[in-house]
Amino acid sequence: MLIVMENTATEEQVEKVVRAVKARGYQARPIPGGERVSIGVLYNKGAVDASAFLGLAGVKDVVPVTRPYKLVSREVQPEDTYIQVGDVRIGNGHFTVMAGPCAVESEEQTLETARLVKKAGAQIFRGGAFKPRTSPYSFQGLGELGLKILARVREETGMPIITEVMDDNTFDLVAAYADIIQIGTRNMQNFSLLKRAGRSAKPVFLKRGLAATIDEWLMAAEYILEGGNSQVMLCERGVRTFVHHSRNTLDLSAVPVIRKESHLPIIIDPSHAAGRRDQVIPLSRAAAAVGAQGLMVEVHCKPDEALSDGAQSLYPNQFEELMRQVKAIYNVHATGNDF
Ligand code: PEP
Ligand code: MN
Fold it and tell me: Residue 319 has what DSSP assignment?
């Protein structure tokens, strides 16, 4: 349930409502909005008696929240969430492109790729230091050395860094270097990791699980918000289907559903969806057209020599082309917003 306060409500009135909610054994979560504060009522097992709150000073309305996810839902927060990372804004009318190699392999490879993607217009640099690989014999990432290389990239290029955290043990280490913490597909329902991310002050990029429904994905995001961290963005990166023409199937229909259901930004990763570079530019155009708020794209300075995901990594000149095309598509339906 959501208690909507008048736009003239005072802090004391909000506080009093919070106390009234808690007195009934529930949790209260004030949610500041553009015009007014709302108070989410959480942990109620059944219906809550609205009349107990309707009479309190400063209360405008009491509305039921019909979805199983609460804090991520548009019912609770109608306005888009935006996330500010340094000078870069994600969501709320902005289109943000994150690009870089699948994995940090060396300082030279990472810096060279970073300079190239920045020149082409990428705003955020991606690169994995801890890699979740299907085979234990595949390159597992450089670990902390990879994080140090990413920090050097940030220093030199000014681009904020997004990198994946794989487990609770390395959470603090990754969070110390990353500007955005990525939780990968295979960890979407790693609940202890989600809870840890909920206690973090860093923005979180939550990828959709390989076989997750949208409800399950939003419930995973709910864990992070429930833990106290409201800076969450969602990433659709393809789900497992029966096809052989791509690694996964990019579920573009998830974008309008997420935009309707949730206030969180939604980013598309065409690289892991496709698994092959010839599909990445067309899928990126589609992402911009369908209303995604950004892209995460794998780019490598020498894809043929990549230690992971070379086949889906764009050559730098292809990434330049992607940026040109995506900008053109985005500007067709954008209404006075920047890219
Ligand atoms: C990645 O982005 O590096 C990655 C491993 O992606 P996913 O979790 O989508 O497989
Ligand atoms: Mn990859």
Answer: H
Average pLDDT over residues 93-109: 97
Residue 277 has pLDDT above 70, yes or no: yes
Quote the crossing angle between the two packed helices 191-198 and 214-226, to the nearest 10°.
40
**Per-residue model confidence (pLDDT) at position 338:** 65
Q: Which of 133, 122, 121, 126 is CA-nearest to residue 150? A: 126
- Residue among 207, 217, 239, 280 to mutate when testing ligand 1 (max atoms within 8 A of CB): 207
CA distances from 28 to 2, 8, 14, 170, 201 (A): 9, 20, 10, 32, 21
Q: What is the pLDDT of residues 168-206, one digit of tens each?
A: 999 999 999 999 999 999 999 999 999 999 999 999 999
User: Comparing C-alpha atoms, which of 298, 295, 251, 248 is closest to residue 273?
Assistant: 248
Which residue bears the tokens 């000073």? 57
CA dihedral 161, 163, 165, 170 (to 10 degrees): -60
Question: Cβ of 108: how many Cβ atoms within 10 Å?
Answer: 10
Distances (CA, A) of 182 to 55, 317, 339: 44, 26, 22
pTM value > 0.85: yes
Residue type, 210: L
Which amino acid is it at 155?
A: E
First vs last Cα of the chain: how many Å apart? 36
- Report the separation in Å between the CA atom of 132 and the middle of ligand 2, taken as the mean of its atom positions: 9
What average pLDDT does range 22-30 have in this prediction? Answer: 94
Q: Is 201 exposed, middle or buried (0-12, 13-18, 19+ CB in 10 A)?
A: exposed
pLDDT tens per residue, range 125-143: 999 999 999 999 999 999 9
At 258, which amino acid appears? I
Full DSSP string of 185-226: GGGTT-HHHHHHHHT-SS-EEEEPPTT--HHHHHHHHHHHHH
Tokens of 241: 């289907």
Ligand 1 cavity residues, CB under 6 Å: 102, 128, 132, 164, 184-185, 207, 237, 269, 272
